[in-house]
Design brief:
single chain, 404 residues, alpha/beta
């Protein structure tokens, strides 16, 4: 088996040993017919592994269905999985097939299986053991030949101990397990993924690709990425959209350092968020709701200031590119070549002239003046240019415009 060809086919990026081991295990389980349990945090790509198992199995010519158990309404779970007969409940105007009937002979991928109600878990166990099930509202026993690939982002045995998951179903599924490592444990793959995502996004939108200096790569790798690959992809696309510009013959790529990347990094972790003090309080202290509101206002204000700083920094990106002849290396499986191709070097804050070290208010007024001059005093168009409402623009007008 060519592991790299497998990754290319299913758009899996990375060379981490734990990732490679998970892929090899999936291929080994595929032809056996065993039910498989895939464990991994949200956003690590569990469905791709389920599709690999299906495609390398003897069922690959038949149907593959992916069902998010967490998205099924609890009162309709059994109907969605096993079907129902006409009149079995309000709204059942006709007999309907469920996923187990539709996927007969194929593979059924049950994502977030821990979200299934206990009653549905019992019915699922029966299908796994005997292939038998009943439609909702029917006394007739039907049969199906479906292979189950289940996935979860929770520790299933802990759910068993809490009474949230059936122990017999857990042991039935857990005989064949695949564990997909989280992105924080695949640090060497993070920049590969970043380069892939910015490359794809920039090509679709005709924008310059983003590359990172070594200190920016370290910053990217130090973040925990709780949303894993899905979060990194969204972050990379957003960064490219905000920082990049349209491609020109002499302007192909933009390079960022750590200080340039810092304002855009996710804020889920690392920020000191105030916590409520639950000890004794003096009689004059704010009550819990008042304190919570104050803390939220402070935190929201900090987020707004950070966003404003990032916007001002972006507007100071220098335009002149530095042309170089060669293209950058492919993102997949290679060490990135030293910065090649036309690059725009973004100045750090320390390199800016002293006269640019203005207060946030002064910088904001300068931007407003520029927008108003550009649109000859038209406040509506200036507000759209600056990404703020017309009312907000009016409140922030420089002194010389307030009488106009």
């Amino acid at each position: 088996m060519d592991l790299q060809a497998l990754k290319n086919k299913y758009d899996i990026i990375g060379n981490d040993p734990a990732l490679n081991e998970a892929l090899e295990t999936a291929v080994k389980f595929a032809p056996t017919g065993l039910s498989v349990l895939i464990q991994g945090e949200s956003g690590v790509g569990k469905e791709s592994f389920a599709r690999i198992i299906h495609q390398f199995s003897t069922r690959r010519q038949n149907a593959f269905f992916a069902v998010n158990c967490g998205a099924l309404p609890r009162e309709l779970v059994n109907s969605e999985l096993f079907g129902h007969v006409k009149g079995s409940f309000t709204g059942a105007v006709e007999t309907r097939k469920g996923y187990f009937e539709e996927a007969d002979g194929g593979t059924l991928f049950l994502d977030e299986i821990a979200e299934l109600p206990l009653e549905s878990q019992a019915l699922l166990l029966r299908v796994l053991q005997s292939g038998e099930y009943r439609k909702v509202g029917s006394n007739k026993v039907d049969h199906t030949d479906v292979r189950i690939v289940a996935a979860t982002n929770v520790h299933l045995y802990e759910a068993v101990k809490r009474g949230k998951f059936r122990e017999d179903l857990y042991f039935r599924l857990s005989a064949a397990q695949i564990r997909i490592p989280p992105l924080r444990d695949r640090k060497s793959d993070i920049y590969l993924l970043f380069r892939k995502f910015t490359s794809d996004f920039s090509e679709v939108n005709g924008m310059c690709k983003i590359s990172l200096k070594p200190d920016a790569i370290r910053l990217l790798e130090q973040y925990r990425w709780p949303g894993n690959i899905r979060q990194l992809q969204g972050f990379t696309q957003s960064l490219t959209a905000q920082v990049s510009v349209k491609v020109t013959p002499t302007h192909q790529r933009i390079e960022l350092g750590a200080q340039d990347l810092m304002p855009f990094m996710p804020r889920e972790e690392g920020d000191p968020i105030p916590a409520l003090y639950e000890g004794p309080q003096p009689s004059s202290a704010f009550n819990a709701d008042e304190r919570q509101a104050i803390f939220k206002a402070i935190f929201d204000l900090k987020q707004e200031v950070d966003a404003l700083k990032a916007r001002l920094d972006r507007r100071s990106l220098p335009a002149p590119p530095v042309p170089v002849e060669e293209e950058e290396a492919e993102w997949q499986g290679q060490e990135e070549m030293p910065a090649q191709g036309p690059i725009v070097h973004v100045e750090s804050r320390e390199s800016q002239a002293p006269e640019e070290s203005l207060s946030v208010r002064r910088k904001e007024e300068d931007l407003i003046r520029q927008a108003l001059e550009k649109y000859h005093g038209n406040r509506k168009k200036a507000a759209e240019e600056l990404g703020m409402s017309e009312r907000t623009l009016y409140r922030k007008l420089p002194p010389e415009y307030r009488k106009k």
